[in-house]
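## tool: complex_structure
## caller: assistant
## args:
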Amino acid sequence: MTTHMPAAIENVQDYLESFTEFEKQAAGRNVSWLRKLRDDAFARFCEVGFPTTHDEDWRFTNVSGIARTPFVMKTDTAARPSKSEWKTYRVEGASAHVVFVNGRFARDLSDLKTSPKGVKIAGLREQIANNPDALETHLGRYLDIHRDPFCALNTAFVEDGAFVHVARGTVLAGPIHLLFVSTASDQASMMHPRNLLVFDNETQATVIEEYVSLGGGTVLCNSATELVAAENATVSHYMIEREHKEAFNISTLRIQQARSANVTSHSLLLGGGLVRNNVHPVLAGDGGECLINGLFVGDGRQHLDNYMHVEHASPHCSSRQFYNGILDGHAHGVFHGRIVVHKDAQKTDAKQTNRNLLLSDDAQIDTKPQLEIYADDVKCTHGATIGQIEENALFYLRSRGIDERSARRLLLLAFAGECLDRMQPGAARDHAERLIHEHLLSVADYLPGQSSQPQKERSWEEVG
Amino acid sequence: MALLEIKNLHVTVGGHEILKGIDLKIHPGEVHSIMGPNGSGKSTLAQVLARRQTYYVTQGEALFNGRDLLAMKPEEAACEGVFMAFQYPVEIPGIGNTYFLRSALNAIRKYRGEDEMDAMDFLPMFREKLKLLEMDEKLMNRSVNEGFSGGEKKRNEILQMAVLQPKLAILDETDSGLDIDALRIVAKGVNAMRSPDRAMLVVTHYQRLLNYIVPDHVHVLVDGRIVRSGGPELALELEEKGYGWTEAEARQVQVSA
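## result:
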């Protein structure tokens, strides 16, 4: 349960104004269940405010920078680049390109023509306006607004984002690419994209959720995605964060898995200033499998927080968490892996591994496993390592003629490659691989200080 | 001109002086062997020449092809033509053997102003070298040295040497831990590379390797100094009398000096 701390909203009046304004014109404002969803969520947010570091779930991440910034809702989509400028962001081989500008679905920049039969893709706002009742079954059903104030805030402002429905038996070859762009802004602005991704029985699909910035300015992107995988569905989800370094990015992926559903979540945190990535799968049917795979690469003063909450609610399910972190400069990484095994979830097999490379003396990682096991016949393991680029390996490569910069880059790529290896071959993985390669090119440029002493790798592993 | 000329080399590791004034001249085409007991500084000499940065040169110089070797980074020394076969080859997960070796070869070719070699040209040459060292091509699909046996790792070192074609090949206790079959294969690979314009420095604890790679000169290193130099017969003499003989002699030298 969330620890109750004094509300840390310094601009509660601003949020109230934004919310009042929002409710006056929002799509679905006359749909009673939706209005209730928003009102309850806003009330919850006002009640608890932003979390503080006294809250166990937020111990390593200080969001006071968000709490004290007066954000305004940004809906102006007038000044935006032309379609040709989007080309660099396109994912080759995608079956649909869906673009959102400042949280608002941009049909004119999107390309939905190629999406095949059995797949419905729309802006959530359109869907609310046209057929709100079709959303009631799922929208807001899974996201936990009581535990996480950011989820409450997102739900209060729920309106636009992606709505994807893949009908029973449909196998989608290319990924659906959801691209969220924030444009330059003088005033601190916020957006709360909300995605609902529903995969019926025996479907197979990949969705990429990607966040980028066009131009600077303080921005809060607080997104939430509800992903529903019905029986035997096989779904891959990619979260790619590469906004500029002034951006606050809070994202939550809430996965609901039915019997024998297989869901893979890949998180790639490369950009953003303060980033919190929540992944919360609930294995609600027998025999489900969930892989949560992640790579976070930070430098400067980036703060990259990976919060996992894996809930085993049914027997015979397996979950795997693998997160690799590379931190340079004064970057701060967090891996918080919470696994909850409910009383009836016998024969659970849960594993968690977090490996980190610290490239500078000032980089920092907090890694915290948290196992809560209420069943008696389960296998849960967790392990973490913190190390540096191995000098032996570096010397070996250099002694064969490879210059120091390239050698470092090779070793970083090899470390990041562990995450790539867990992705299914295809367009989404190719896209991720290209981004990682480009990003690590810049990180590999650093040269370590002469003062840094070789440090022995620290690690632990426990079996419970 | 000597390919490698070492003058009065003093080296410190972790505050301890390990090499206490080494003089050595190696000409192209020659094979020199450095022998010595444990802790005499053999490996230190090899590592310094390969430019490992944790070894500090406090005095002396080393010229490679007339250039200051001790001012070079490891990759520069490699590109100039220095190669060391590691006593303990490093496992590098995530980097493929073939990819690594082609990257290394192309880095060296680029340094020398030559065109990079594409996979089409690289593979036939590579396969030929694999054959010479009786290595399974499947091993090359794995990460560098990952899951290799001790013998496979050592053979992989010689394979790299065969691909990179250095001017000076330093073998740092390549024979340690090898069974006789692996030793023969390694020696075959090394001997195939003997040529008038290439020199070798074979560092070893045991005389056994020198039955297969016959050196032109043998130097005995004791306590950071070369106490004796001679022809291949010196190795046999050492085998017979053990290192105690040279150590005693070394003490005498110090006393009379």
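## assistant note: The first strand of chain A starts at residue 72 and ends at 73. Residues 32-48 of chain A form the longest helix (17 residues). Handing back to user.
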